[in-house]
Write a structure and sequence with these properties.
This protein has 658 residues and is an alpha/beta fold. The chain contains 21 helices and 34 strands. Helix 2 runs parallel beside helix 3, helix 4 runs parallel beside helix 5 and helix 9 packs parallel to helix 11. The radius of gyration is 31 Å and the shape is elongated. About 1% of the residues have low confidence.
Amino acid sequence: MTPENYIDLPPLLSARGTVTLPGSKSISNRILLLSALAQGTTEIRDVLLSDDTERMLDGLRTLGVAVEQLESHVFRVHGCGGNFGETGCARFPVKQADLFLGNAGTAFRPLTAALALSGGDYKLSGTPRMHERPIGDLVDALRELGADIECLDNEGFPPLEIHPATPTGIDRVSVRGDVSSQFLTALLMALPLLDRQVTVDVIGELISKPYIEITLAMMARFGVNIVRDGWRSFTVAAGSSYISPGVIYVEGDASSASYFLAAGAIGGGPLRIEGVGSGSIQGDVRFADALALMGAQIEMGANWMEARAPRAGKLNAIEMDCNHIPDAAMTLAVVALFAEGTTTLRNIASWRVKETDRIAAMATELRKVGATVEEGEDFIRVTPPAHLRHAAIDTYDDHRMAMCFSLAAFGAEGMRINDPRCVAKTFPNYFTLLHDVVQAVPVIAIDGPSASGKGTVAQLVAARLGYHYLDSGALYRLLALAAQRDRIQLTDETGLAELAERMEIRFEGNQIFLDDILVGDELRGEQCAAVASKVAALPGVRAALLNKQHAFRRAPGLVADGRDMGSVVFPDAVLKIFLTASAEARADRRYKQLMEKGIDANIAALLLDIRVRDERDTQRSASPLQQALGASLLDTTALSIDEAVQDIEQAALKVLAH
């Protein structure tokens, strides 16, 4: 994992504000394809811009469909309706093409059906995971209708090769409903391309019914109304054809709303989501009902929803059949970490064939943070731990894993999300919008040169605010002591970094423990400080101690002092102070400190040492000592400790009040 391929989320205290949702992926891709198949020109507004919709747009353009981007989220599609071949099937202008569709099921499955009935030679491929996702039930139904489809590697799975169909005259086909609703969606959307009535029978229980409702609603907007017998069969009449509605809007994505509704329920709220509400055609709006069952306060309008924490106490566990909210149910599995009791989510077999095996992936990552998890073929059961552990969450190239587990940062230690860029599949700016509505545990970063008084000042500020305190310099001095104890050379960067990761550090008031041994005045000695300054110049050592420093960030807040607290360790600190004083004043303070402890000292030698240390700290390649961007300079040469503490405390209270 490269350093830039993760995001560290600090421990989160609360969530409130307003989020405007991006367009629905499911609706965007359905409308794009229907617009391409329709007669006339369609202007589509509020289209989601994501990896999945890019795959559909690229595919349509490759097939010769004229697609114009008018504005950021507005497209004009010139439909191919009326362009028929000898078989009576509508044809895309390009009759031979290779399409790469990534891991976009909402592009791959419907395009497979449309191309199989369009008369042409096409190859459809995707990512390795897409080639593991079943498509056999759709292929079998299309073959009954005369489609010529070859599974190139494994029968029932992509990649596929499609050749012109030979109509069979069959007017009734069947498809399984318990693997993926996308099979039925793909068939229904393609059937108007045939010049005859066809009925599709659903075998077994149909999962993800709300997504079929979306399909039927979108087809109706384009002039094709389907006759249905409950959820058992669906009939497309002869002579059906798509007609452009002219202008059509894409609803906000209800699945994406689940993360922010959950954040409001966990983090207090109120957190309002705009773009989807009670008037939605998407089944995932019913995620709000599930949160309400857990005790969250939910309000809803035609185009908005809002969530708050329970009026009293914590969220409570639930047991739920999640067939109606298969994607949003993943969010419930993480919300379960903040609920009292054991949450059981049933009827989620479709998780197994999504972007990853989501039941297995969710169980693995929930256990990392301390949860007790039981998984089955179609259920997951989650019991939260007493305290959530910090963990590096693997996301399996699955956007929903990344977004779900971002909510686990409401635990006391924050969370690391590996490969956060996978959210580009449906919600490219997710982490930016999340950042805008959450409040992290506040940090006050006090940096400055050696002997500037930052340690004393920071400790007093922390005491006055009731915050935790981090003396980052002590970490490097402790490492210096541990290195001397273990006889590790100060030039051995790898050895020192490994030692930094494994040593155990504990602060209890004014007492400091290294591997459960109380450390005394030797930690404050000049020799230890000089060695620590050399050790701190090593990039590998600084990287190894970063996580240990982050672990001190706990509610209600943290005051941290050091050389790079505001620039590197806590760049999001709410207040950054660069504390300084003249070299002479700092030498005099150090001299008095040592004499009070009965340690002999020479003020001229101390002054020289401070100047040498300043030069080394400002010139080092790893986190050089400098005033962080946004930091306020506080020169304490002429200030008492109490005056410096009062100045910083007042600045902190002013910032925290906002």
